[in-house]
Design goal:
Structural class: alpha/beta
Oligomer: single chain
Order of helices and strands: HEHEHEHEHEHEHEHEHEHH
Largest sheet: 5 strands, parallel
Helix content: 25-40%
Shape: globular
Strand content: 5-15%
Strand order of the largest sheet: 7-6-5-8-9
């Protein structure tokens, strides 16, 4: 079980390496700095800031958007990419420990992007690695790089992060993206609406975190147009089949909330629909053409946010980026 008392971790290990493992330790100023950096990369994504660098992507769990956007970010910045997308093709199948895998890859790469199915794996890797570690998702725990692109998407669509009504819908128990978003938004006075069946309700640890950080939240089991009408951000999530040990439980809740066009008739003009993707059945395809839909653009924003993250862990400052003369048009 997650122990939030130990959730705020330092961003450097004993060797002085800067990592990106959790969103919980980012200050308000740092979040806004990262958003400003992402904006700069959106203006000019193709550069050679990382020419001569190697980025390793170690994905012990399946991924499409996260892996491809990190690899695209590295390529657009001039770096080379190595790595794997299936742990079955690595020496882990021979019994190699995570520590040894990290130490070996550190011989070849300047930064490691890692997704792992075990909660806390990225934190552990950051404590032993001599190069920066970027957490690309660890179990049902956190997904800090997704959180940065979510924050960037919210800022782009709302013009602020302050005083927003945010509805989190679906799998709030295992949804690492919503867990990270709660922690990041603590600086900006949000009101959260947790919308989930009781089987997938927000864990007590995160509700306690909200109370300790004076984050307002309301819990719901119903999902309807009245709730949606109060939202600035409607954050949909899929029910994650891979997190269930009992598939009968999954079958009970997999289609509990489905967003349809007619549910958006009273939505605020500024309201945007986000989703970390992939979706299954929770957003009908008819919604894709609705002006409130933003999840495809949200995924595109991942490129700029992850360019910012890679540069930040490598110590490249905003001033260096803004004054960069390696831009490729």
């Amino acid at each position: 079980m997650l122990n939030l008392a130990h959730e705020i971790v330092i961003t450097t290990n004993s060797m002085g390496i800067h990592n990106f493992v959790t969103i919980a330790d980012l200050s308000r100023e740092k979040i806004l700095y990262m958003i400003k950096t992402a904006q700069e990369f959106e203006k000019h994504p193709n550069r050679e800031l990382l020419k001569g660098k190697v980025v390793a992507t170690l994905f012990f769990e399946p991924s499409t958007r996260t892996r491809l956007s990190f690899e695209t970010a590295a390529n657009r910045l001039g770096a080379r990419v190595i790595g794997f997308t299936d742990a079955k093709v690595t020496s882990a199948t021979k019994g190699e420990t995570l520590k040894d895998t990290i130490l070996m890859v550190s011989n070849y790469a300047d930064v490691i992007v890692m997704r792992h199915y075990i909660e806390g794996a990225a934190q552990y890797a950051s404590e032993v690695a001599p190069v920066p570690i970027i957490n690309a998702g660890d179990g049902a725990h956190q997904h800090p790089s997704q959180c940065m692109l979510d924050l960037y998407s919210i800022y782009k669509t709302q013009g602020t992060l302050e005083n927003l009504n945010i509805c989190l819908v679906g799998d709030l128990k295992y949804g690492r993206t919503v867990h990270s978003l709660i922690m990041a938004m603590r600086h900006f006075n949000p009101t959260f609406h947790f919308i989930a069946p009781k089987e997938l309700a927000m864990p007590d640890e995160y509700k306690l975190y909200c109370k300790e950080n004076r984050i307002k939240y309301i819990e719901h089991t119903d999902f309807n147009d009245d709730i949606i009408s109060k939202a600035d951000i409607l954050y949909m999530t899929r029910v994650q089949k891979e997190r269930f040990s009992d598939l009968m439980e999954y079958e009970k809740v997999k289609n509990v909330y489905i967003l349809k066009n007619d549910m958006l008739k009273n939505a605020r003009e500024n309201m945007k629909i986000l989703h970390p993707l992939p979706r299954v059945n929770e957003i009908e395809y008819e919604v894709d053409m609705n002006p409130h839909a933003y999840y495809i653009q949200q995924a595109q924003n991942g490129l700029y946010a992850r360019e910012a993250i890679i540069c930040d862990v490598l110590g490249i400052t905003f001033d260096e980026i803004a004054n960069d003369n390696t831009i490729i048009e």
